[in-house]
Amino acid sequence: MNPPYAGRAFGSIMSILWYDILAPFLILILFQRVRSYKIIHAAFPEQGIWFPLIKAKKIVTVHDLNPFIDKGSSLIQILWNLYARLVYYISIRFADHIISVSSQTKRELKSILNVSNNRITIVNPGVSGMYKMSPKKENHEPIIGFVGKLTERKRVTFLLATLKALNFLDAKRKWKLFIHCSDGFNMKKFKSLSEVFMLQERIQFNTYVPEEKMSQIYKCFDILIFPSSHEGFGFPILEAQRCGIPVITMVGAKIPEETSCYTLKAQDPEDIARICIQLIQDQDLYEKTSKAGYFHASKFTWDKCAKRIIELYRRLLKNVP
């Protein structure tokens, strides 16, 4: 399971057509070939659109309930949310069991879609072993970073406000902002805002790179800023921590506690700026935060994830003739 921005061009019409319409249709065409399987596991709700036609035991993994939470800022996003809600209802309604990637997603499945507790098992994803801690860079201009989509839920305007506050509170340093994101609906809007803030010379944009190079992206950062208001899991937090990078999230953000418990919490962009300055100035605090995050993120492995899923398969197969 890769983070979305590393494996697929979210925000593009072709992405929606292929991953969420055409690919499930091909599954239907191949249906005759999978009839003998005892368990069908949809890795995403979109892949469960044909569950009503499948007699085998069915499992769906739910990563988040964003289609029910995000309002959408464009017509395409609104239409996509409507389609995604329908698909979620179908795949969850006809699934024999549901895997939730976090305790928070489980709570939302119960509260938003009224799914009973005994139909849900929490299986936290793993973090790739390619993310490794490296020595902190010395004598350079500090860099704050962001990884994710440029959507309203990610509150990316906080990044600009933080950079502006850093330039005011710590003018002696030339703080920079590196943004790694999908080239989606809001890229032009965000670049225009950076010009309004007169910060374009301090900001570097990177779009899609292969996942195997993501470790290098994180290692360019001194601090990861993750101002998102809501996450189903929050891969970038753990990936950055595996690289020894301190992470700042927002007070009150709905991010699973198992993911965010070793992040530093900020109240607003000025508070983010103050925490950034403190981390750069206090080497002991930086190292303490870095090590705590690293050891926590190292607990999330794909071996653990696979073992829990296999256990679930065996449980379901007990009742299969």
Task: Summarize this structure briefly.
Helix 5 (103-112) links the parallel strand 3 and strand 4 (120-122). The protein has helices at residues 4-7, 13-29, 66-69, 75-94, 103-112, 157-169, 187-196, 214-220, 235-242, 257-260, 269-281, 283-297, 302-317; strands at 39-42, 57-62, 97-100, 120-122, 143-147, 176-180, 203-206, 223-225, 247-250, 264-266.
- Spans of 5+ residues with little confidence (pLDDT < 50)? 1-11
CATH topology of the largest domain: Rossmann fold
- What level of helicity do the residues show? 40-55%
Class inferred from helices and paired strands = alpha/beta
**Which architecture name of the largest domain does CATH use?**
3-Layer(aba) Sandwich
Proportion of strand residues: 5-15%
What's the N-to-C terminus distance? 31 Å
Q: Outline, from the CA principal axes?
A: globular
Query: How many domain units?
Result: 2
Please compute the radius of gyration using only Cα atoms: 21 Å
CATH homologous superfamily classification of the largest domain = Glycogen Phosphorylase B
Q: Give me the count of strands.
A: 10
- H-E order: HHEEHHEHEEHEHEHEHEHEHHH
The largest sheet, given as strand count, sense and whether it forms a barrel, is: 6 strands, parallel
